[in-house]
Amino acid sequence: MSTQAEKTREAPEGGRPAARARSLTKTYGSGEAAVVALDSVDVDIAAGRFTAVMGPSGSGKSTLMHCLAGLDSVTDGRVWVGDTEVTGLDDRRLTRLRRDEIGFVFQSFNLLPTLTALENITLPMDIAGRRPEPGWLDTVIDALRLHDRLEHRPTQLSGGQQQRVAIARALASRPRLIFADEPTGNLDSRSGLHLLEFLRRAVDELGQTVVMVTHDPVAAAHSDLVLFLADGRIVDEMSEPTAGAVLERMKRFDTVRQP
């Protein structure tokens, strides 16, 4: 199933998707033990929009994100970020693309224990030899309430604070695409809501593109479009979602999976 986001919304950059995939297939193992995680998926991620990806466990939602972001190889099909075909890049160019064009937020924080919070936040830009934009960096730090934790090392931070540092790191360089895998999973409800509101602002006010994998209908309700996966395929989508509508749609998966 191919999504219709590009038809229903006028995206920036002349309507060009921020990322897209055609006939994307990912298989783990071989022979009788082979597991098809993604089954010939066609998808366009509209630039300057907030897309949520949902589905039951094992539906392929995280695999889809990893393949779109160039974190995992594909078995068949093609993937582009902007005009660059990810599936045609060697390791060096793929590493540069991920560093310069994409921000990542995962449940595991991946902070370096010897660096302060601020040093962890600016690390990708330091590696790339770029200076952060002071105004934007301050905006990110303010939104995530980290000003009084910038000189602390990860071991001096709570789990929620470490997650906020990881999120700030993903946003600090103003990447073309932000991929977030359950970004509120280790945050309390108030901090999680604050983060989702900031991601919404980053899209609305700053034209960034966010792709978020989540199981939470409340989180998905902050997006412009929800893609629903089942058995490695996109089976439905919902524009302008509400938490209630998303929850009702997710209940259908439970009904179908009943013996």
Q: What does this 3D model show about the protein?
A:
The chain has 259 residues and is an alpha/beta fold. It has a single domain, classed as P-loop containing nucleotide triphosphate hydrolases (Rossmann fold). Helices cover 37% and strands 24% of the residues. The chain has helices spanning 5-8, 61-68, 91-101, 117-128, 134-143, 159-172, 189-206, 217-220, 243-257, and strands at residues 19-28, 35-45, 50-54, 76-81, 84-85, 102-105, 177-181, 209-213, 225-230, 233-239. The strands form two sheets. It has a six-stranded mixed sheet with strand order 6-7-8-3-9-10, with helices on both faces. Strand 1 (19-28) and strand 2 form a beta hairpin. The longest helix is centred in the C-terminal third of the chain and has 18 residues, at 189-206. The two termini are 26 Å apart.
